[in-house]
Structures are given as structure tokens and as C-alpha cells.
Design brief:
The complex is a heterodimer of chains A (339) and B (361).
Chain A: E1 2-5, H1 6-20, E2 24-28, H2 47-55, E3 56-58, H3 63-75, E4 79-83, H4 94-101, H5 104-107, E5 117-122, H6 136-140, E6 146-148, H7 153-165, E7 170-175, E8 194-197, E9 210-213, E10 218-222, H8 224-239, E11 244-248, E12 251-253, H9 257-267, E13 270-277, H10 282-294, E14 303-307, H11 316-322, H12 326-338
Parallel strand pairs in A: 2-3, 2-4, 4-5, 5-7, 6-7, 10-11, 10-13, 13-14
Antiparallel strand pairs in A: 1-8, 6-12, 9-11
Chain B: H1 9-24, H2 31-40, H3 43-69, H4 83-90, E1 98-100, H5 106-112, H6 116-123, H7 157-170, E2 177-182, H8 189-200, E3 205-211, E4 214-215, E5 218-219, H9 220-223, E6 240-244, H10 248-263, E7 269-274, H11 292-300, H12 303-313, H13 319-342
Parallel strand pairs in B: 1-2, 2-3, 3-7, 6-7
Antiparallel strand pairs in B: 4-5
Helix pairs in contact in B: 3-4, 3-5, 3-12, 3-13, 4-5, 4-10, 6-13, 7-8
Chain lengths: 339, 361
């Protein structure tokens, strides 16, 4: 059992899969230039030493090409892992992701497969509005894509390996404050959780949630950084006699509704905490689905705690205000208990 | 020319003669080049290319007729008049080579080997169509013969072709990909990103620009300052040629040069194929935006007539044999129509499958 950061766990997943299967390769901007960063957050640092620059392919700043090339390579026998530096740049490649990656299998009547991975860092980190967004909602809306959000080192490795072996396009959202990037790429005020990762190989199936904390009064569904904020909030609420259960769905498409419904059968209250902006975010979909399938288990209206519907501001005092904070989760949980 | 390419010099001289031909609209062809062509391309091959072009022409005419009858759903973007670009570019490819296409894919697909039956069934929205009724006219394709299901977003297939080029190279094959796009795509960002990437990585991608002068109703001169789109390739360090896209022999010769470069790892080539569509952009398009004199000049340069005249002048076949050939092609298409008509429709809820790959290749 080794202890590692999420960045290290992701790197190990890539390394193992590239050793296992020569079809796997990485492409992206600055992913392993000599003397460079190893991707914006060090995930691919040093991999070219083992695999060479042919399989760790540094690209021009050409997001349309990166995504389209991943689609083309995937359709013709390769397994590309593309890196987009900042999730915000996914918008540059949206045509390729939505119209080609997400539809090629369907449009071909199931005769074409697109086994590609698109890795995208998300999260507000005082970089201003264009290097800050949480874009999960956009991608969960596109049929044909799978969407995953690993929040621990164990999950990062196990889920990424599953993504690489999946025969469909998978978008991996990773959080900048969780990577544990080191050196010049270290993030200020990062949480950088380290976790134990087994030495032996393992895969984590999609669509299986993890219960991060057991509780009996409120079920909180959260992903990525919001898991950690919810855990902090739960510790505060515990002292007030409010017991919170925290569920990390780990994958948004497919989504494990069963675990959430089983939890609210006991807690009767549901809160969804997401860093994506609130309007039509993935949390809205989860709330709607639970309302359709399981509303009678609930004793109170479903509560969404999400980033306010504004671009992410630069000033830390404002950024902290718009993104769900521990304090906001605590306050909303108290209100939810009263309703 | 800082980025040139010694081998291109003879092509440049070809280009000059083509350019005069295209811009003046006259049929003045350099006799010396014709003589060279006669020596280089054997008659059998020309007949086969003619037959393939005829198949595309008659297929598209049949589709137009069926569409007007109202028994075919959807819309159509026809490749009438652009048969020589499709056949000339793809005739020398192997099954293992790839082709990416556009919203106007029928010619490309037939030339790459997608069957008439499976295409016709797709047009009729049948379950045994090449895309099981899920693709339709604009996504026609069959990856088993290297025809990537057509990508109908202008320029959208270009980065995909780059990825296929990466794949061919990484898998250590000498396969190549022909990437079709129109004049309109040259103003897309995807064009720039794809050309640049293919160049820096020396990918086996052949950029085949079918310049039919119009992006839907907009003339290329309204949206592009330069006359010859091919010169853009210089900006990426990619060798280029300008080709009479209505002369299948010339297209095929240029394609052969580009394919050879790609196969031996020398990287991409850009071919600007000057052509013209004989039909509207899509259904119900009377082409009110086109100059009638321009139309007349181009219609006189019908790729099928050019090829047919060449065949007869050089006694590669007889008029009678060509008529028999035409009859066979028409029979093949009629059979495909019967096959398509008698094929089953998909079940409504077949729509819910194939969203994700289900391992049925």
C-alpha cells in the first residue's frame, strides 16, 4: 500500500495502462516538454522518460485539433488520453466533443467505437472567470459521453484506469485544489488530500457511489472539492446534533441513484452540493430525478447548494462568496433540518 | 518560397497550365501533359474510374428523383458534378486506408467502397442501412471499408483526419487518410489547427479541398481574399497542387503523388480540386445566386463527358460498350432501390440503442 496524491495516482494509472496496452497514448499542451510542467498540474510529468515523446505527444495550442485527433485516433484503433490544461478550454473543442465524440457511435449505427479519455481540471482558484469553471453539467447533458469526477487518490487511479479501458468517450473532471501538485505547480490553499493506493491492480466500476460519511439526518450528495467541504460541515453539524451522510457519486454519467435513494429512505432529507453554477447544473438533474422517483421518502424539499449563477470573480473575498463554503453548507443544513 | 519542396517543381508547372484552364474556362490543354498522361495511366484503370463516376452520377440522379417523389425522408446534399474528385482521390486507396467526408458524402462513400445497397437503404431510413437508419444522408459511411461516417459540420472532419493520421503512424502502418472538405471549410478554425498539426508531425493525411466555389449560397470570393486556396498550405509548410477537379485523370495523378508521399512518411499534401456542383446546395435550391454564364462554362466541363471523350478518343472502349456499362450501372442502382424499399424499418425503440458502444463490431 502506497500513499500518494491524486496527481500521482492519475500518473500511475496512465503509466500502468500505457505499459499494459501499447494503443494507449497521451496528447495535450505542455504535457511533458523537457524542463516543463508535465501538464498544467504535473499529472504527466516524467512519463516521456519511459514512453518517449511519440506516446506522450506534446501538441500545439489547438484544442479543436486535440479533441478531434483523439476522436480520429480512437475510431481507428488507438486509445488516446487527451489533456485540456484547464476545463474552461473544453469550450474551444465543444464541436468535436459534442458532435463527434458523443455521436459517432450512434450515427454509425453502433459500428464505430470512440474509446477516448478527455481529462479536464476544474474549480475556482483565484485565476478569474476563464480558468475557474466547473463544467460537469454541460457534459452530462450530451448523450454518448460518460462523465467521471474522482475526488480521492484511490478513486483517481481506479476510475481513470476504468475510463481508459472503456470503449466510449469519457470526460474526467479533476479538481485543481485536490491534485497535490508539487514544486512550482503547487496550488495556494490547496487541500491536496493524500490517500492509500493498493500496490496490486484494481479498477473501480462506473456508476457505483461511495459513502464518504455515514449519518442519519441529512444526505448530502457532492463531488470533488465539495466532498471535503461537506465533510468539514458535517463535523460542525455533528456537534449540534445533526448527523450527515455524505455520498460521492464518483461518476455523474452513469449515476448511482440507488445508493442515494437508499440513503434518503433513512435520512429523509437531501442536499446536493456542487461547484458548478446552479441553473441546470448536474445537481438540478439529480434533484429532478429524485423528485420523480423517490419524493415520498423525503420529509423536506430537496436543497441545492451551488455556485451562484455568475462568472467566477477574481477577488478571493468574492470567489469565496459565490462558491459553496463550509459555512454556507452548515447554514443550509440547519435550515433544511428546520423545514 | 522559404518552405519548398524540390519535388514540387514539376507540379507547379502543371498547376500553371491548370490555372489558365480553370480561370479562362477554355478547354485549352497542354498537349505535352496529355501525352504524358496517356503513357502513365493504363486504359483499364480509366475505364474503371469512369464506371465508378457513372455509378455516383446515376446514384445521385436516382436519389434526386426519389426525393422529389417524396418517398425519401430528410434532406440531400448531392455530389453531382464532383464525381471526379471523389473517384480520382480514392481510386488508388486500399481498403485499410481511410477517408473522412462532409455533408456531401455520397460520391466519396461510393468511391471508397460503401455498397450501393447499404447507402440506398440508409436513404430510405431502413434498419439495414449503412448506419442502421441512425445516420442518414449526411452521416453516410462504413468504417469496415475505411469510410468514416461522414461529419456534417463544416471543417469538423479535419481534426479527426489528423487523429487517424496519428493512428496510422503510431500503429506503424503505411496507411493513409484522405480528408475531404470544401472551400467553405478553409475559413474554419479547425482547418488551421488540423493543417498545422498534420504538418509538424508529418502525418499521412491528404487534404483534398473540393473547391466548388460556393459555401451554400456564398461565393468563395465574397469570403476569401485569395483566389487559389491551395496557397494557404504554404503557411503550414505543406506542399500543394492546384488540380482540375473535373478531370479524373488529373485528380488521380495528383492523388497518386500525395499518397506516395504520405505512405513513405513524408507527410501531408494539400490538393485544391477546382470543381463545381451541378446541383443545388441542398434540396429545393435553384441556385439563384449563381451566374448563369459561370454555370454554363462549368456544365460544359462535365467530368463524365471529359472522361468519356478521353476514352473514345484514345479508343479505350467503344460507345456501344460504354452504353452497356451505363445500363449495368442503372440496373445496379435499380436493384439497390428495390432492396432498400423491401427492407424493414427499424423499430422505434431501436433509437435507444447504440448511444454507447455495445461491442457488436
Amino acid at each position: 500500500m502506497a500513499t500518494m496524491s491524486i496527481a500521482e495516482a492519475l500518473r500511475e494509472a496512465i503509466r500502468e495502462e500505457m505499459r499494459r496496452d501499447e494503443r494507449v497514448f497521451c496528447l495535450g499542451e505542455d504535457i511533458d516538454v523537457e524542463g516543463g510542467f508535465g501538464g498544467a498540474f504535473t499529472v504527466t510529468l516524467g512519463l516521456s522518460k519511459e514512453f518517449g515523446h511519440e506516446r506522450i505527444l506534446d501538441t500545439p495550442i489547438s484544442e479543436i485539433m486535440i479533441a478531434g485527433a483523439a476522436v480520429g485516433a480512437a475510431m481507428t484503433g488507438m486509445i488516446p488520453i487527451a489533456d485540456v490544461q484547464y476545463g474552461d478550454f473544453l469550450f474551444c473543442m465543444m464541436d468535436q466533443m459534442a458532435n463527434n465524440a458523443g455521436k459517432m457511435t450512434y450515427m454509425s449505427g453502433g459500428n464505430v467505437k470512440v474509446p477516448m479519455v478527455m481529462r479536464a481540471p476544474v474549480g475556482a482558484t483565484t485565476r478569474g472567470a476563464q480558468h475557474a469553471q466547473s463544467l460537469e453539467g454541460f457534459f452530462t447533458h450530451i448523450p454518448g459521453l460518460k462523465v467521471i469526477c474522482p475526488s480521492t487518490a484511490y478513486d483517481a487511479k481506479g476510475l481513470l484506469k476504468t475510463a481508459i479501458r472503456d470503449e466510449n468517450p469519457v470526460v474526467v473532471f479533476e479538481h485543481k485544489l485536490l491534485y497535490g501538485s508539487k514544486g512550482t505547480r503547487a496550488e495556494k490553499s490547496a487541500l491536496s488530500p493524500v490517500g492509500e493506493v493498493p500496490d496490486e491492480e484494481y479498477l473501480i466500476p462506473f456508476g457505483v457511489a461511495a459513502v464518504r460519511r455515514e449519518g442519519k439526518d441529512i444526505t448530502i450528495v457532492a463531488t470533488l472539492l465539495m466532498i471535503y467541504r461537506a465533510l468539514e460541515a458535517a463535523a460542525i453539524l455533528e456537534k449540534e446534533g445533526i448527523s450527515v451522510e455524505i455520498i460521492d457519486p464518483r461518476t455523474l454519467v452513469p449515476f448511482d441513484y440507488e445508493t442515494v435513494i437508499n440513503s434518503i429512505k433513512r435520512t429523509t432529507r437531501l442536499m446536493i452540493v456542487e461547484e458548478d453554477t446552479r441553473r441546470n447544473g448536474w445537481g438540478a438533474e439529480v434533484a429532478a430525478q429524485i423528485a420523480e422517483d423517490a419524493i415520498y421518502y423525503l420529509d423536506a424539499p430537496i436543497k441545492r447548494v451551488a455556485t451562484y449563477d455568475v462568472p467566477i470573480p477574481f477577488a478571493p473575498i468574492m470567489e469565496n462568496f459565490v462558491v459553496p463554503s463550509v459555512q454556507r453548507i452548515v447554514e443550509e443544513a440547519r435550515k433544511l433540518m428546520r423545514s | 518560397m522559404p518552405v519548398n519542396h524540390g519535388y514540387l517543381l514539376p507540379c507547379r508547372s502543371l498547376h500553371k497550365s491548370n490555372k489558365i484552364l480553370v480561370s479562362s474556362g477554355t478547354q485549352k490543354i497542354n498537349d505535352q501533359i496529355i501525352k504524358l498522361m496517356k503513357e502513365n495511366i493504363d486504359g483499364e484503370k480509366i475505364l474503371m474510374m469512369y464506371e465508378k463516376m457513372l455509378l455516383i452520377r446515376k446514384y445521385e440522379e436516382k436519389i434526386y428523383f426519389l426525393f422529389l417523389e417524396g418517398i425519401m425522408p430528410g434532406t440531400i446534399h448531392q455530389s453531382l458534378g464532383q464525381e471526379a474528385t471523389a473517384v480520382g482521390m480514392l481510386f488508388d486507396l486500399r481498403k485499410e486506408d481511410y477517408m473522412t467526408s462532409t455533408h456531401r458524402p455520397a460520391g466519396h462513400c461510393l468511391a471508397k467502397g460503401v455498397t450501393v445497397e447499404s447507402m440506398m437503404a440508409e436513404m430510405f431510413a431502413k434498419k439495414n442501412g449503412c448506419c442502421k437508419g441512425k445516420g442518414g444522408a449526411m452521416h453516410t459511411g462504413d468504417i469496415s471499408v475505411g469510410a468514416i461516417p461522414a461529419i456534417a459540420i463544416v471543417g469538423g472532419g479535419m481534426p479527426v483526419a489528423v487523429g487517424i493520421g496519428i493512428s496510422c503512424k503510431m500503429r506503424k502502418t503505411d496507411n493513409v487518410v484522405v480528408c475531404f472538405f470544401g472551400d467553405g471549410a478553409t475559413n474554419e478554425g479547425a482547418f488551421h489547427e488540423s493543417m498545422n498539426a498534420a504538418a509538424i508531425w508529418n502525418l499521412p493525411v491528404i487534404f483534398a479541398c473540393e473547391n466548388n466555389l460556393y459555401g451554400a449560397s456564398t461565393h468563395i470570393s465574397q469570403v476569401t481574399k485569395i483566389k487559389d486556396l491551395a496557397i494557404r498550405a504554404d503557411a503550414y509548410g505543406i506542399p500543394w497542387e492546384i488540380v482540375d477537379g473535373n478531370d479524373v485523370i488529373k485528380v488521380n495523378e495528383a492523388a497518386a503523388r500525395a499518397i506516395e508521399r504520405a505512405r513513405k512518411g513524408s507527410g501531408p499534401t494539400f490538393l485544391e480540386l477546382k470543381t463545381y456542383r451541378r446541383s443545388g446546395h441542398s434540396r429545393n435550391d435553384a441556385c439563384g445566386y449563381r451566374d448563369k454564364k459561370e454555370e454554363k462554362e462549368w456544365f460544359e466541363k462535365d467530368p463524365l463527358i471529359i472522361c468519356k471523350n478521353y476514352i473514345l478518343e484514345n479508343k479505350l472502349s467503344t460507345l456501344q460498350k460504354l452504353e452497356e456499362l451505363e445500363k449495368n450501372v442503372l440496373d445496379e442502382i435499380d436493384n439497390a432501390v428495390e432492396y432498400a424499399k423491401s427492407s424493414p424499418y427499424p423499430e422505434p425503440d431501436d433509437a435507444l440503442t447504440d448511444v454507447y458502444f455495445e461491442g457488436r463490431i
